[in-house]
Design brief:
Elements: H1 11-16, H2 19-34, H3 37-42, H4 46-51, H5 84-94, E1 111-113, E2 116-131, E3 134-141, E4 150-153, E5 157-164, E6 172-175, E7 199-205, E8 210-216, H6 220-225, E9 229-235, E10 247-254, E11 261-262, E12 273-276, E13 280-287, E14 293-297, E15 302-307, E16 310-318, E17 320-323, E18 328-334, E19 339-345, E20 352-353, E21 356-357, E22 361-367
Amino acid sequence: MDPTKPAVADKEDDDRTGRIARRVLLANVGVAAAGSLVVAGLALTGRGAAAYQAPPATPGHVHSGASPTPSLAPGKTAAPAATDHDAVHKAVTAAFPAKTQGQGLQELPSRVVDGVREFDLTCGNVRWEVTPGQFVDAEAYNGQVPGPIMRVTEGERVRVRVMNQLADSTAVHWHGQRVPNSMDGVPFITQPPIKPGETFTYEFTASPFGSHMYHSHHNATEQVGRGMLGPLLVAPRDSRMDPKYDKEELFIFNDSLGGLTINGKGFPATFPYTAKLGQRIRFRFMNEGTQIHPAHLHGLTFEVFARDGYPLPAPFRCDTLNVAPGERWDAIVVADAPGVWAFHCHILSHAEGNAGMFGMVTALIVSS
Ligand SMILES: [Cu+2]
């Protein structure tokens, strides 16, 4: 594989195995560990490179650690100075995408038994590496943060066996699905808690279609905050209900006990998204955290077409999309400009500080 060309799986691949795109991305990240995918991406285009060069210092722009330059004549600007502040920012950005142990959002295998699609979820403790060397005590489905991707089709009968290997009770809520009340997963309202060592089997008919989620609804601040969440993707029975796209990506915010994360990782360990020039990418935004996170993509445009799985009366365009806790938004991005485009939460304290970028920051790398 040419490490300077982020490989992209097409939609057919995604539909067939889903894992291909992730594997390709992982391969790139592996390559990046030796060099840097960003550097490789930057080499693709001068425009991208410009986006990541430190801006020249301007009057009134104070760098902490920079020595004052009182001799400057009015109207003149200082030459870029290699201050400690710049060096720290540069180092953390150069480390992107940093390699960490563990990857969430792997495709969850299923089997069809007598017309019912069956899945197994195991709730357990795991040490999760959020950024290089920073481990948290996570609670996770199948050892992944976020949990594995469950794919079903609208109208399909679904059965999920949930085994609890945590030290605490739990329950699973199917967020966005019109399930029978007894399957809604809220302890003491619709079911007893699933105690440590117990197994509970959920069964429902998948509906409505769209981008949905599953998560703990027991001690949820703690359990979801520590990682007990995942995507439940319900394909429409009639594929014409979805817009056309070449590839799909998940973008899941979480913000408490596991840190400020996108898909379970904090910058510089977040995964970059990749696309070839002209491709249409479907992003599924989800917020499993406790605060609103405005997703902001540089240089390109969101065409937002669904909220909480429901198609909008008409798509709207924006570049900053508020995603509130519990919400899902679906948007198409047409990758019509090459470069490494920053892609981050625009609550700045979730994205960049004195030590450079951190937390909810990634990039969309468009190769020509
Ligand atoms: Cu945020």
